[in-house]
Design a protein that fits this description.
It is a single chain. The chain has ten helices and eight strands. It is of the alpha/beta class. It has an eight-stranded parallel β-sheet. The chain is globular, with a radius of gyration of 19 Å. It starts with a helix and ends in a 12-residue tail after the last helix. 40% of the residues are buried. The N terminus and C terminus are likely disordered.
Length: 266
């Protein structure tokens, strides 16, 4: 009992450095939310339609906790091992009145087959289902532990060879394989915008994904309402304009990324 009391008291007295980081993240979060509202107003959308995911890859447990205290609930990680270690650190740092149940974890990076079992234990949402084999393995792994996971089919809308994701032609079949898994729920499609400063090219990719979603929704109304996970710190306003329902924000929320903090592999 004395040990728990000490931990809670310790956490209530943050250093000036910790307070500064926390304030910065809180201010950044408010700024991002304001920009979301502005982007939605310009295209006649409701900000409540947009899910904000804080991309916490390479970020410390303390930064994630600060974002959570500022009101963010959803966090995206690229690597299974890094997410595992970070969740453990966060759990140890939290007081007895708080738990990891207040967090919702999204895997937004490429998932290798040999990481599937661990991934389904760690994450609530998988944004990177890009093959029928991965859909099948995820379904089996979820069923084995009695868990259901939301899934996006990742589409390589830009066609860049450096990016993961299914082709537009394969997306429907992969989505149907996700739907066929009793422990998986298809919630939409995901893409990463092209690496370019050409806003027309970026917006074109987002619109192409929206059109794919709209077409498949008409063909398969039984799939329900499908979302679009697209848009990052440099292009999320274009993504919102193009119909995004989930945006993945890292540097605009946490500041410049320090890749020396990354651990583990995909």
């Amino acid at each position: 009992m004395h040990h728990v009391t000490f931990r809670v008291i310790f956490l209530s007295f943050r250093s000036n450095s910790d307070a500064s980081v926390s304030d910065k993240i809180s201010n950044n979060l408010m700024a991002v939310k304001d920009r979301i509202k502005s982007a939605c107003k310009k295209c006649g959308r409701n900000p409540s339609e947009i899910q904000l995911i804080g991309v916490s890859k390479t970020r410390t447990a303390e930064e994630v906790i600060s974002a959570s205290r500022a009101g963010l609930a959803d966090f995206g990680e690229n690597r299974v091992q890094e997410a595992d270690e970070k969740k453990g650190s966060i759990n140890k740092s939290l007081s007895t009145e708080t738990s990891l149940s207040t967090f919702r974890w999204h895997l937004i990076g490429h998932l290798q087959s040999n990481k599937v079992n661990k991934a389904v234990e760690l994450f609530d949402v998988i944004h990177s289902v890009d093959t029928t084999d991965l859909a099948h393995k995820l379904g089996e792994a979820c069923f084995a532990i009695g868990k259901s996971i939301d899934c996006y089919v990742q589409v390589n809308a830009s066609g860049e060879g450096s990016k993961s994701g299914a082709s537009f032609e394969d997306a429907e079949f992969i989505a149907s394989r996700v739907v066929a898994q009793i422990s998986l729920k298809l919630v939409g499609f995901m893409t990463i915008g092209p690496m370019t400063s050409d806003e027309t090219a970026i917006e074109s990719c987002f619109i192409d994904l929206r059109r794919l979603r709209d077409r498949l929704s008409l063909l398969h109304p039984e799939w329900g309402n499908l979302g679009l996970s697209m848009g990052m710190s440099g292009d999320y306003e274009l993504a919102i304009k193009s119909g995004a329902t989930a945006i993945r924000i890292g540097s605009a929320l946490f500041g410049a990324r320090d890749y020396s903090q990354a651990t583990g592999s995909f």
